[in-house]
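Appendix B. Chain record.
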Amino acid sequence: MAERPPRQRLGGDPVPRHHPLDLLRGVAALGIAAYHWLASVGVVIESLGTFGVYLFFVLSALTMTMVYGEDFAARIAGRELKTFYWNRLTRIVPLLAAVSVASFLLAPHGSGIRLVAGQLISAFLTGSGLFALQLPGYLSNSEGAWSLGIELPFYLVFPMLCLMTRAMPARRLAGFVLVSIVVQQMLLALLHRWATDDPTRFWDYYSTPLTFLPFFLVGLLIARAPTVRRGLYLFPLIGALAAIVMFSALNRTELFTNPAAYVFLTACASLAVLCAYRSALPRSLVGPSAFVGNISYALYLTHPFSLRFSLAVATRLGGGATAAGMLFFPLALAIAHLTFALYERPVRGYLRSLRSRDRPVSARAVPGDPATSYSRASE
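Structure tokens predicted for this chain:
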């Protein structure tokens, strides 16, 4: 089976849902949740946690190019720019704000006014997205929110990147990807020296946008791939994901000090997204892929709360890691689904409707949110 997913402009027909990308996004979110559960019992699979997040960066660039690329291919117009930024804001900030408030309320505050004030400021910077402007790894008050501090600046410059690269030959763009990887590895070498001298600078790895530029550029490059979709691409997709999961389980090297390992895993993450982009799912997987795609953002941000609760309950009942895991995964999925259905989607829909009220009916059809790979009409 082969199909060609069409591209469209902001005022055009909705972009159809891309189920393999939904599935990959959901699998990545589940993998990160599994990483944190394993780490809580002393089993650290660095490649799963680190490159599970990096998959999101590649996916983000790819799916935004699929949906918005044509709008910024030749020019940057005011209406398209406002719609793009409003869609990104309403996608990311409402849930991020809610999670940052919950993290503040559940954090141990102690008795010092300065400590509480600092936690409150951190919660405000995280929930508003302002932490993205300076060292998000340090300023984030919610586990996992640091990655959104990396994505938000990319959203800011995405229209300009589209304008600069859409007419660029694929080979030249691939050359920029390779150069960015070389620069990334040079930067990581410097960051490692600083982190070794001062362990408190560990978050430098996760606070520097230049570290993540190659992943976003790879997403832009994958969008150039032929759009004929076939089921056989599922096999290399599974292989690439397995390589990411198993690498650190079998090889205990520190990724940030091993350029070969880092570049290899970058290639695996890129291959996984490319194969998902070109895959076609059997009908039996369409429903599950839509489900995990819908809840992936909520699962990513809320699973630390589910993990904390599961570990506390298992400890109280005298259970071990297995008992905590048996409770954690169903609970994390349930909370993510409820968060998506009762808060994330309704709030996003309401906020987006505010911009459409005063616009002509013909202009109200806006593309779906790239973060979930489906059109607004399908929400």
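Further analysis of this model is presented in Appendix C.
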